[in-house]
């Protein structure tokens, strides 16, 4: 069967709102490689959007899933609980940054984790308002969409957003916004439009994902922590995309000298199975009444088993160290390309959560055409890349942390050739 034949069937059966970055229909995958239904091989520098950090079909993860599937696949933890759910909560309570007693709840998706974090913050504080940042991404549910700081394609056409959600600018020096500007905007918001005594939570990605892979400056995190402490506001770290060794630490917040009160996570948590979690201060997490949190599929046994294996693999294979090594090599290669490519205006990111941003050759404007041309050229040559950013002018690199050295080197050659070809297009 050909990709084009399947694509034609897709167009008549799947809602167009489910966007597509490629028309490559996968037949099988192994670690950092995928093969489509026509037998063509690709190097995967998307990893399911930072989901398979441990690689496609890691043997230890697959073994854990198969063993669990032979016992039971679902009972609903709220009806018939199981011990490995509790054990995973214990592990996350220990590993999530913050020197305080913690508790955890498992759900299914990152958006659902964000929704529950907001519910918990509201229950704990008795307040309604939530503040997020421009360019941030927090999901496609109504609360997640309302908190997301990007209109296209996430908000356009869906009507009024949730009330009591507010946005302030995220500091991006390249775009002329400093940490001082962001904290000043928060203080102005409190003076002009919003009583801080009405604010339940401030939510932030330590490194913006869809927004362009901009790391939050340490000064911003310290400022947010001080503001939250001053006004009794819950600080939520959205680690859905940054978690599980991607940034060179198990969690991106490990790199800061302050901690969030609540952490949301998903994506890399279970090596490709749908599992998400909310971990936070025990007193906050217990604010919701019994039955107020949870869900039928939350903490599915297969995902729980996979997550235990993922945590083991990260530790046993030192994937935090591997992320830092790969990220350093990628940055070095990109810098060598940048020397002859004026369209590259920035190379950034911690660990192996790296991005490069493209402007016009005179740096006068964002250049989404160049970014998309590089992505399309790389796809032709067998390398899967993703774009992101408010202007769509950023390429993000999200290969599995387990990518083999020889395949990484092959990908670098394809990337360089693709950028050179895009310049000449």
TrEMBL record:
Instruction: Give, as one word, the top-level EC class.
Output: transferase
EC assignment? 2.6.1.19
* Keywords for the protein's UniProt record, in alphabetical order: Aminotransferase, Pyridoxal phosphate, Transferase
Q: Which GO terms describe its molecular function?
A: 4-aminobutyrate:2-oxoglutarate transaminase activity; identical protein binding; pyridoxal phosphate binding
**Any keyword Transferase?**
yes
What are the required cofactors? pyridoxal 5'-phosphate
**Superkingdom classification of source:** Bacteria
UniProt-listed GO biological process terms: gamma-aminobutyric acid metabolic process
InterPro entries, sorted: 4NH2But_aminotransferase_bac, Aminotrans_3, Aminotrans_3_PPA_site, Class-III_PLP-dep_AT, PyrdxlP-dep_Trfase, PyrdxlP-dep_Trfase_major, PyrdxlP-dep_Trfase_small
Give the family per the record.
Belongs to the class-III pyridoxal-phosphate-dependent aminotransferase family.
By what name is this protein known?
4-aminobutyrate aminotransferase PuuE
Per the UniProt record, the source organism is: Ruegeria denitrificans
């Amino acid at each position: 069967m050909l990709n084009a034949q399947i694509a034609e069937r897709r167009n008549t059966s799947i809602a167009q709102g489910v966007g597509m970055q490629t028309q490559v229909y996968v037949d099988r995958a192994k670690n950092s490689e995928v093969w489509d239904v026509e037998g063509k091989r690709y190097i995967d520098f998307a990893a399911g959007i930072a989901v398979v950090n441990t690689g496609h079909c890691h043997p230890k993860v697959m073994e854990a899933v198969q063993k669990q599937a032979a016992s039971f696949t679902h009972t609903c933890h709220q009806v018939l609980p199981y011990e490995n759910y509790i054990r995973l909560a214990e592990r996350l309570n220990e590993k999530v940054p913050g020197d305080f007693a913690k508790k955890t709840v498992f759900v299914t998706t990152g958006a659902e984790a964000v929704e529950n974090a907001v519910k918990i913050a509201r229950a704990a504080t008795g307040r309604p308002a939530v503040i997020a940042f421009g360019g941030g991404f927090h999901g496609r549910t109504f609360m997640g969409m309302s908190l997301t700081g990007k209109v296209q394609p996430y908000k356009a056409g869906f009507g009024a957003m949730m009330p009591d959600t507010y946005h302030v600018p995220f500091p991006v020096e390249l775009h002329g916004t400093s940490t001082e500007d962001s904290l000043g905007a928060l203080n102005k918001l409190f003076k002009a439009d919003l009583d801080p005594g009405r604010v339940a939570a401030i939510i932030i990605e330590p490194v913006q994902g869809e927004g362009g892979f901009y790391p939050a400056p340490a000064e911003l995190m310290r400022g947010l922590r001080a503001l939250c402490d001053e006004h009794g506001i819950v600080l939520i770290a959205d680690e859905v995309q940054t978690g599980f060794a991607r940034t060179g630490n198990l969690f991106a917040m490990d790199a800061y000298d302050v901690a969030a009160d609540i952490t949301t996570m998903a994506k890399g948590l279970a090596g490709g199975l749908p599992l998400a979690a909310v971990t936070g201060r025990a007193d906050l997490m217990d604010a919701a009444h019994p039955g107020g949190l949870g869900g039928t599929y939350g903490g599915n046994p297969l995902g729980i088993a996979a997550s235990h294996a993922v945590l083991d693999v990260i530790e046993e294979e030192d994937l935090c160290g591997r992320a830092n090594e790969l990220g350093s090599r990628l940055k070095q290669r990109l810098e060598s390309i940048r020397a002859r490519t004026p369209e590259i205006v920035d190379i950034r990111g911690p660990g192996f959560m790296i991005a490069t941003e493209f402007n016009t050759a005179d740096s006068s404007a964002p250049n989404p055409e160049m970014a998309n041309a590089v992505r399309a050229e790389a796809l032709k040559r067998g390398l899967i890349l993703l774009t992101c950013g408010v202007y769509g002018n950023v390429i993000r690199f999200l290969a599995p942390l387990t990518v083999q050295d020889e395949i990484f080197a092959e990908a670098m050659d394809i990337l360089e050739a693709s950028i050179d070809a895009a310049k000449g297009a």
